[in-house]
């Protein structure tokens, strides 16, 4: 995916001739022409390529190993309500306008703060509607593979208010059934693709 950004900058250079200063210059060029987040992804891809080349014996060392792109705290600012985050009134209007699956998904996101991967991996067996709690025990990754949360802190219990409980009770009656018992499956009851969620909602 990022080869098109690596190739024009380093494609004509021999692997054995690459040095750490050259990779640092490559990093600086990326930062000058791409967003910080994208530049970091391109650099990570290059590191992976060089790691593979080292494993195959094509280079003696990974000269990109010590080169990194850290978060720029100088440009980091606090999130602003109404700019980065919807206002309470905007949230209320979104919830009132949403119907069916969209409503239950949006309400759950707003009041639990679950990540997309956690929402897509959430099972009904992890939702205690009587007790008003939700257990985060698994996630669905970008390849739609079910697995444990990324860290121990990822496994947690989240309280559910009456509004969320009632919304999920209503959704449970209409939710597509599937072997995985997912709360937010696709229309066939299988893992819902992240890109589809983003494009729809």
Question: What keywords describe this structure?
Answer:
single chain, 201 residues, mainly alpha, three-stranded antiparallel sheet, two-stranded antiparallel sheet, 8 helices, 45% helix
Give a verbal description of the structure.
The protein has 201 residues and is mainly alpha-helical. The protein is 45% helix and 7% strand. It contains eight helices and five strands, in the order ααααααβββββαα. It has a three-stranded antiparallel beta sheet, with no helix packed on it. It has a two-stranded antiparallel ribbon with strand order 3-4. β1 and β2 (133-136) form a beta hairpin. α4 (88-97) packs antiparallel against α5. It starts with a helix and ends with a helix. The mean pLDDT is 90.
């Amino acid at each position: 995916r990022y080869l098109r950004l690596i190739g024009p900058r380093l494609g004509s250079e021999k692997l054995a001739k690459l040095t750490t200063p050259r990779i640092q210059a490559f990093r600086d060029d990326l930062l000058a022409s791409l967003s910080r987040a994208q530049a970091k992804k391109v650099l990570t891809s290059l590191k992976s390529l060089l790691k593979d080349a080292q494993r195959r014996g094509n280079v003696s060392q990974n000269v990109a190993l010590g080169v990194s792109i850290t978060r720029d705290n100088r440009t980091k600012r606090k999130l602003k309500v109404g700019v980065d985050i919807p206002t309470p009134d905007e949230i209320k209007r979104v919830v009132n306008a949403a119907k069916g699956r969209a409503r239950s998904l949006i309400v759950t996101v707003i009041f639990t703060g679950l990540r997309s991967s956690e929402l897509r991996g959430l099972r009904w067996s992890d939702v205690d509607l009587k007790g008003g709690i939700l257990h985060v025990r698994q996630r669905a990754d970008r390849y739609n593979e079910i697995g444990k949360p990324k860290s121990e802190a990822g496994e947690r219990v989240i309280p559910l208010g009456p509004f969320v409980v009632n919304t999920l009770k209503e959704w449970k009656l209409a939710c597509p059934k599937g072997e995985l018992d997912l709360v937010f499956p696709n229309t066939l009851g299988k893992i819902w693709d992240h890109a589809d969620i983003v494009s729809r909602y």
